[in-house]
Design a protein that fits this description.
The chain has about 375 residues and is an alpha/beta fold. Strands 8-7-6-9-10-11-12-13 form an 8-stranded mixed beta sheet, sandwiched between helices. α3 links the parallel β2 and β3. The N and C termini lie far apart (about 70 Å). The protein binds zinc ion (ZN). Zinc ion binds next to α14.
Length: about 375
């Protein structure tokens, strides 16, 4: 049996160590891996470091540092835990690992750059625990959501589940655009609103529900009709748009403004028993007008009339929109860019269609110029579902 000192010496003999000044030259290229406990990390860390407490190293490193040939500089407070971690990384197949000699303490003593990482409060730790447990999201992902700004068009059938799930998930700023008042006929599907709020402005009702769900979220209401003269100003500064509107003029307007501003749109639509979702990522995938180059005449556009819709359907479609939003914000998985999911509630089936950019698209095609204009002649915009 060996003592701690002997074990450490034997471990150090089998790994590579690097001094802080040499390691500092690798900032920005190497992966700096911090294996200290959360309390230590919270008080200061090397900029850009990946944090995995030593006890979680084996279970989380493959997700957080997937490239086993990447250059990794692992550090702890004094250089012992990182030595054992470096050896473990070698056992896991990481081929280019060095342990920072003297650890973070030595790094600070040398006057090298460090910062206090943005961390979650104890309340946020508890609230978002199911997120931070996911290695694909972690605390970093949650921080990102808290720093994100999403604009939701319509506090109606689609906007309700989208806004509620995004608020619950901790998207830091939610803008809500809706120019309507709560109507009794909304309550069959628009879960943001309640019986005692009939007649109230929808943006105010939405704000009450969302802040009751999560006071962390800043809700910004826009009690206006989106139009050519305000769409750019309202959308500017948001990371992503959730489109829950139900009319062609607004979709066109939003599409063109999103191309101009470079903001992705998570599109959703519903009618009767069917729903569709896609993600329009400006110039990376098709836009709405690649799909629908010209708005249909008013009499052909059922969404412009008071078409019926089954109550639960917007809940499903709006929830998919919320999930796609989180994926786009965090760069998770494959968002529905260039794909359209079509949901049939009666068949209980999902189908996915491939969508392609149209080189002749009047909005995003070659030589197209963006003109922000109203399309009211096609059909009158009215309340979002
Ligand atoms: Zn297009």
């Amino acid at each position: 049996m060996s003592s701690f000192g002997e074990l450490l010496a034997a471990t150090k003999a089998r790994i590579t160590e690097i001094t802080p000044d040499k390691a500092a030259a690798e900032l920005g290229t190497a992966v700096f891996l911090d294996v200290r406990e959360m309390e230590e990390y919270d008080q200061g860390a090397i900029p850009g470091a990946v944090h995995i407490p030593r006890g979680f190293l084996e279970s989380q490193v493959e997700t957080k540092v997937p490239d086993r040939s990447a250059r990794v500089v692992v550090y702890c407070a004094g250089g012992s835990r990182s030595a054992f971690a470096a050896r473990t990384l070698g056992d896991l197949g990481y081929t280019d690992v060095a342990s920072l000699s003297g650890g973070f303490n030595h790094w600070k003593d040398e006057g090298l750059r460090w910062l206090v990482p943005m961390t979650l409060t104890p309340e946020q730790h508890r609230r978002y625990q199911r997120h931070t447990l996911l290695p694909e999201m972690g605390e970093e992902g949650q921080q990102k959501l808290l720093g994100s700004k999403v604009l939701i068009l319509g506090a109606g059938g689609l906007g309700s589940p989208a806004a509620m799930y995004l608020a619950a998930a901790g998207v830091g700023t939610l803008g809500i655009v809706d120019m309507d008042a709560v109507d009794e006929s909304n309550l069959q599907r628009q879960l943001l609103h309640t019986v005692d709020r009939v007649g109230e402005r929808k943006v105010d009702s939405a704000k009450k529900t969302l802040n009751a769900l999560n006071p962390d979220v800043k809700v910004v209401g826009y009690d206006v009709r989106l139009a050519a003269d305000n769409v750019v100003e309202i959308m500017d500064g948001y990371d992503l748009i959730v489109d829950g509107t139900d009319n062609f003029p607004t979709r066109y307007l939003v599409n063109d403004a999103s191309l101009l501003l470079g903001i992705p749109v998570v599109h959703g639509s519903i009618q009767r028993f069917e729903g569709q979702v896609s993600v329009f990522s400006p110039y990376r995938g098709p836009c709405y007008r690649c799909l629908v180059p010209e708005p249909p005449p008013a009499e052909m556009a059922p969404s412009c009339a008071e078409a019926g819709v089954v109550g639960v359907l917007p809940g499903i479609v709006g929830s998919i929109q919320a999930l796609e939003t989180i994926k786009v914000l965090l760069g998770l998985g494959d968002p529905l860019v260039g794909r359209l999911v079509s949901y049939d509630a009666l068949e209980q089936s999902f189908r996915t269609f491939k969508l392609h950019r149209d080189p002749a698209c009047p909005a995003c095609g070659r030589g197209a110029t963006i003109r922000i204009a109203d399309y009211d002649e096609y059909c009158l915009p009215h309340a979002s579902r």
